[in-house]
Amino acid sequence: MMLDDILQNVILLKTIGNIDINVSGIQFDSRKVEAENVFVATRGTASDGHQYIATAIENGAVAIVCEELPSEINPNITYVKVEDSSDALGKMASAWYDFPSTKMTLVGVTGTNGKTTIATLLYQLFRELGHKSGLLSTVCNYVNDLAVEATHTTPDALALNALLAQMVDAGCEYAFMEVSSHSIDQHRISGLEFDGAIFTNITRDHIDYHLTFENYLKAKKQFFDNLSTDAFALTNADDKNGLVMLQNSKAKKYTYSLRGMADFKTRILEHGFEGMLLDMNDKEVNVSFIGKFNASNLSAVFGAAVLLGQDELEVLRIISSLHSVSGRFETLHSPAGYTAIVDYAHTPDALVNVIGTINQILQGNGRLITVVGCGGNRDKGKRPMMAREAVNGSWKAILTSDNPRFEEPQEILNDMLAGLDVVEKAKSLTIVDRREAIKTACALAQAGDVVLVAGKGHEDYQIIQGVKHHFDDREEVRKCF
Questions:
Q1: What is the CATH number of the domain that holds 55?
Q2: pTM to 2 decimals?
Q3: Which residues does the annotation say bind meso-2,6-diaminopimelate (predicted)?
């Protein structure tokens, strides 16, 4: 493809050499560069691509896109200076794959909690409605019915556009994707044209990356600020920052709510561990989901489907047949008469929601035993908060390992314990080994009790000292049964 065609949507500050040349591919990792590639020098969190320009040229790059021109200019190489290489990479990737986002209806879901559930349910719903659809999510990517393993919530710009192009080739009419704050901040979604955006909620998360809550909020808002006038912006009016997302957005604005007036209003009429009876825009529907947060997620799914032109009654009919996403409030029933719930809750707010939902259903007729840990090499500030929420909402909280990564598991637990006073500590147990922690919780449970295993959900691994070991909370619970 011609370099000037790839750069058609990129603002060029300076060019040295000829941009009317043929290139064989785009790379932002110098190690992957092959003959006649264009190398984009991006600034990552761990390294700066500008340091590897010489390596990229050695490996066969014929063109370099960068924010700073190197001191030594090779007369045989084309150099293109841009303001932001990551932004340029997104736009170049989109052009390279022939703008796949313009050939489908693309809807993005952002927020701290609920992204996976909403994106996955929309994908399932539209497939049930008879539309070929794609999904980009934390759990798994799908090109219609073909599963493609997911490595990030939102892939890098090249992988993302390659997947979208695959969806176009497979005849997909719709694509639903989780949009993480990292991907917005790092411009991985630059060059994509979204037809709709959904905001779920925002609470403390990824402070290790964004440093402040304000930066985290700003990243989410940027997604809505960049929408076109043809797109819709659907926000959760129950979140105090929900309406902030709509400020300055050029998109058509809509709201969903469980509490107040909204374009898409949902009320919980009845609930139990088997599901809920909901009133959605004055129409009753039985669903197999549990909890306020899921009622909110379903409200977003319903709203987005209607905004995409689908028939309300047909959408509600299919919503009544959908099931929870893997590792999201996944309910397992023990032969001994207690219930185990495996959930991905890994933020204080998500944990509060899950624990609150369980206690609301129990109404004192059973005890809650919570198993929870915190990830290593991540935001340390939420560790004492997670421990406090687990202890205060449970009959017994068992603090254990999550993914320790390169940290000592006991040190992570010490950070969690630092959030507890003497009385709270008496309501908790500390068991470093997650398998033993789950076994202990199940051994303590009696008929009518609930064991909540929080933090990992769908994940089937544990990372200890950088090594990935197979570990699945659901498997461990079933072994205990």
A1: 3.40.1390.10
A2: 0.83
A3: 378, 402-405, 455, 459
